[in-house]
């Protein structure tokens, strides 16, 4: 059994992680940390069937676990990962602290100096694009939710070189309210969010832009420029990204669809929909799946719809998928 510890278990992603680990046949949740609720039972803080006593960070016994998951704010997570590594424990980080390739990029997008830049060599944990780099490694950077939907939606085109180099890709994405975290904020109150649909940090300002463009550049082996327009969707969970991609004008939909089907043929969590179908939240919520739909709007312009559950394929489910690969298990273990 893989012995697991969780930091930040009372957050939405942390709790989802604990819930799914409870039914994982090869993993055991040994302890869970919540600084704000240390000493309480988890069921007191988050109503539900999970019932274990929450610890403070200084109470953990590193010798009792093989791997930790960090569902902590950026800046804090890296310090916990560094402590885990000093104690010989593997780490899968759900924050942004290990995702960017350089300290300068991290400072640009997160407005403070990286506390442990030596950790930035962690492999990027999007298995469909980087599986070989995730086996038996000490740390994994779990991708962001928006980047996961965007990268899986665009990877085949960019890998094949079928987009128009130098043209801007426009990403219109919407996330359920849980994507903003559990801490109370005015714009997340029921009266503010219910029956509303609102953009935020549009253009080139959202912190996920750095991660998205970094990984798109690798796929395309060229600089990829994006405009990113995230929106708050009045649902609990789910992300739908609608992506407008300038492509080579001679391409038809049958060619593109065949490319996507071939690229993802052996991927258990990516579903390329039939021609004419559009991805929706209903395809993916409460699963670790990504659904991808393809529409040729006009010659030279492809619209990709890509849907995931932000708490699963966008966070906890993908983290378990990464743990499975890290420890040599079939990656669907505990997720199907």
UniProtKB/TrEMBL annotation:
<protein>
    <recommendedName>
        <fullName>N-acetyl-gamma-glutamyl-phosphate reductase</fullName>
        <ecNumber>1.2.1.38</ecNumber>
    </recommendedName>
</protein>
<dbReference type="Pfam" id="PF01118">
    <property type="entry name" value="Semialdhyde_dh"/>
</dbReference>
<keyword id="KW-0963">Cytoplasm</keyword>
<dbReference type="Pfam" id="PF22698">
    <property type="entry name" value="Semialdhyde_dhC_1"/>
</dbReference>
<feature type="domain" description="Semialdehyde dehydrogenase NAD-binding">
    <location>
        <begin position="3"/>
        <end position="137"/>
    </location>
</feature>
<dbReference type="GO" id="GO:0003942">
    <property type="term" value="F:N-acetyl-gamma-glutamyl-phosphate reductase activity"/>
</dbReference>
<keyword id="KW-0521">NADP</keyword>
<dbReference type="InterPro" id="IPR000706">
    <property type="entry name" value="AGPR_type-1"/>
</dbReference>
<feature type="active site">
    <location>
        <position position="145"/>
    </location>
</feature>
<dbReference type="GO" id="GO:0051287">
    <property type="term" value="F:NAD binding"/>
</dbReference>
<keyword id="KW-0055">Arginine biosynthesis</keyword>
<dbReference type="GO" id="GO:0006526">
    <property type="term" value="P:L-arginine biosynthetic process"/>
</dbReference>
<dbReference type="InterPro" id="IPR058924">
    <property type="entry name" value="AGPR_dimerisation_dom"/>
</dbReference>
<dbReference type="GO" id="GO:0005737">
    <property type="term" value="C:cytoplasm"/>
</dbReference>
<keyword id="KW-0028">Amino-acid biosynthesis</keyword>
<keyword id="KW-0560">Oxidoreductase</keyword>
<comment type="pathway">
    <text>Amino-acid biosynthesis; L-arginine biosynthesis; N(2)-acetyl-L-ornithine from L-glutamate: step 3/4.</text>
</comment>
<dbReference type="InterPro" id="IPR036291">
    <property type="entry name" value="NAD(P)-bd_dom_sf"/>
</dbReference>
<comment type="similarity">
    <text>Belongs to the NAGSA dehydrogenase family. Type 1 subfamily.</text>
</comment>
<dbReference type="GO" id="GO:0070401">
    <property type="term" value="F:NADP+ binding"/>
</dbReference>
<dbReference type="InterPro" id="IPR050085">
    <property type="entry name" value="AGPR"/>
</dbReference>
<comment type="function">
    <text>Catalyzes the NADPH-dependent reduction of N-acetyl-5-glutamyl phosphate to yield N-acetyl-L-glutamate 5-semialdehyde.</text>
</comment>
<dbReference type="InterPro" id="IPR023013">
    <property type="entry name" value="AGPR_AS"/>
</dbReference>
<dbReference type="InterPro" id="IPR000534">
    <property type="entry name" value="Semialdehyde_DH_NAD-bd"/>
</dbReference>
């Amino acid at each position: 059994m893989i012995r697991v510890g969780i930091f930040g278990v009372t957050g939405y992603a942390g709790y989802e992680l604990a819930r799914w680990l409870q039914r994982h046949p090869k993993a055991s949740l040994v302890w869970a940390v919540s600084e704000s609720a240390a000493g309480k039972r988890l069921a007191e803080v988050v109503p539900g069937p999970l019932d274990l006593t929450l610890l403070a960070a200084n109470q953990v016994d590193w010798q009792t676990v093989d791997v930790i998951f960090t569902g902590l704010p950026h800046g804090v997570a890296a310090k916990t990962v560094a402590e885990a590594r000093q104690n010989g424990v593997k780490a899968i980080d759900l924050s942004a602290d290990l995702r960017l390739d350089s300290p300068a990029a991290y400072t640009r997008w997160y407005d403070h100096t990286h506390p442990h830049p030596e950790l930035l060599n962690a492999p990027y944990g999007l298995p469909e694009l980087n599986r070989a780099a995730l086996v038996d490694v000490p740390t994994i950077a779990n991708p962001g939710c928006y980047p996961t939907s965007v990268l899986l939606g665009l990877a085949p085109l960019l890998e094949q070189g079928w987009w128009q180099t130098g043209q801007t890709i426009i990403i219109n994405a919407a996330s359920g309210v849980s994507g903003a975290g559990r801490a109370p904020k005015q714009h997340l109150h029921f009266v503010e969010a219910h029956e509303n649909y609102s953009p935020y940090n549009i253009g080139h300002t959202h912190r996920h832009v750095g991660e998205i463009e970094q990984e798109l550049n690798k796929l395309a082996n060229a600089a990829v420029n994006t405009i990113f327009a995230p929106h708050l969707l009045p649902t609990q969970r789910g992300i739908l990204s609608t992506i407008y991609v300038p492509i080579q004008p001679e391409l038809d939909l049958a060619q593109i669809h065949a490319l996507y089907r071939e690229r993802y043929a052996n991927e258990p969590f990516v579903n390329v929909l039939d021609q004419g179908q559009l991805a929706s939240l209903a395809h993916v919520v409460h699963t670790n799946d990504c659904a991808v739909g393809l529409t040729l709007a006009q010659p030279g312009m492809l619209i990709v719809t890509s849907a995931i559950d932000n708490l699963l394929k966008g966070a906890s489910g993908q983290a378990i998928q990464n743990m499975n690969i890290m420890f040599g298990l079939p990656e669907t273990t505990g997720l199907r």
